[in-house]
């Protein structure tokens, strides 16, 4: 056996660590995977998920060819069909629904693995435009949507998200995030454990605010419990201290900021003395943390999934950035900064506000072209011409990852037609009529369009496929492009036509940006000729790179980037191919003034939409806390003798990412991980024992789950991971079924959302807990 090493990135989380894949190319086998010690960004670090790429490639349950459902007396059966037949069937059925009931009778759901794929990033917009529907949903509204909305209001672009400059900061305040396990989220940062340890080694400090003493909290200088869902109150209290003690210093962004007095007035209503009983954080601690941040040489406030997936998600996301700005650390080294990416499809239009242009049947606003996924089931259940009749899902499992999975399952069952672009027959795709499976990650050429814009250091790296795919399989970009072309009425083999359209769009935008920046770009025809004839994502990426901030501008032999006035290595696809370990483009640099896309070119620290929503915080402050921090929950309020009302939170785990990896033996094996963490005082009061079972009930559902008694959760709070529940009929997930766990989203309530963004409330869910019968 002759093997070779192929270098690329792992794509199973946001860190995108560099890996060395040993392959037997002739046998199309993966021999081993290890960290790439020469990778400029990750330096050899990987987590267990990287090894899972081998298992994913080899998984016998992974689909390789299209499936069509065939109903039978004994249940549904599936037949493999050819690609052309599958494309024709999907286009015919979707087209028939659209012709009879209109484009909004179609719906789409996109899972977050699609964000990790270059082909999906480039060709999904074409497919969505071809379908023509406004009933679009994605995992964003059970994830980061509040952060995108607050960034839109502050900076004019939902993609302009401040990234902690963790490698240079002297002080880091972390809320609702566990980067030691997540490897950074909305913060692409391989080896977060090492980065945080180095922060402390250079004399810095980091503090974690979380209802659970997480793996990150265990490494921190300090950890403070906080009542789930009260982060906005705590952040406003920090801000009130900064104003009251004259500690505000806006630093380099001072000329850009307006409405500072409005923020001062609002924060003044939420002093630490008023909020402490609701947050569980004593006033003295809040005051000290505010003073420490203000006094630090550099500091950054970072909030993530816990600050997003709560009733005040947009407010908390906004206030995280306000704390950083008010201490002089926005767009400053060691604070929160903005990467300069090497490849971008097009620049945002200043003043464009993609929000509340249409609404769901419930009245929740659209954001960035999507409706909240909490409304998906009711949009399918709607009456008459208002309902979704056909659905396309891609790389997602909303039955396990979205609120009230039981209701959503029944809704999916009622569809006239469903097609899924997915590699598994899972808890969601079992309802599809056709499944179109793309290549696995190791068979796919890739480049991080999205996560480079969230990286803690400017960088660029190509991830060539490690294994050549079989000729009877199809890449994801081709599936999306072909579907788009068919829905546009193009003839067979429409993918090539759609690909050229995407290339033209990207190239025209890039050449126009170069010209506006004062350079002399080639003609479009000359540029197309230079890009070659091979259709697909890579030549489009080449166009982005060469017209981008570090691009060679189609100048042969260029040694420095000439686009947009930036300096650095002249980038092109060919240049990236010569750098298998990636190219370091330097530390983050202050440049917010250049990328602000607000209508007036300023940062409004007190947007009216957010200030008005603070009325809900006032109402919360006027109530008695349901669960006072450090005190037991009220007993007897749930159903059943001895039940107690608790607040449910989730938790991340290193060996999985949402519901993606349950069928990979190397990651699923080992001890039971789907357990309910319960504080010892609550366990004693409720009659629960370690290793026993608890019944957990919410407004919408109930589950039974193993109990793990632990003081890592605060009293009154229980913790359950999501992404489990693999025990339903009709799937092909043999390994996952052996480690099924329970579906936490049978408990999440589709009626509970952050009213501004429509993001689902997944943290701080009221539940009643008692011993299982």
Automatic annotation (TrEMBL):
Gene Ontology MF, one: metal ion binding
Domain 4Fe-4S Mo/W bis-MGD-type: 3-61
Origin: domain of life: Bacteria
Keyword terms, alphabetized: 4Fe-4S, Iron, Iron-sulfur, Metal-binding, Oxidoreductase
SUPFAM superfamilies xrefs: ADC-like (SSF50692), Formate dehydrogenase/DMSO reductase, domains 1-3 (SSF53706)
Pfam families per UniProt: Molybdop_Fe4S4, Molybdopterin, Molydop_binding
GO cellular component, one term: membrane
Gene3D superfamilies: 2.40.40.20, 3.40.50.740, ADC-like domains, Dimethylsulfoxide Reductase, domain 2
GO biological process: cellular respiration
PANTHER family, per the entry: NADPH-FE(3+) OXIDOREDUCTASE SUBUNIT ALPHA, RESPIRATORY NITRATE REDUCTASE
Protein name: Molybdopterin dinucleotide-binding region
Organism field: Haliangium ochraceum (strain DSM 14365 / JCM 11303 / SMP-2)
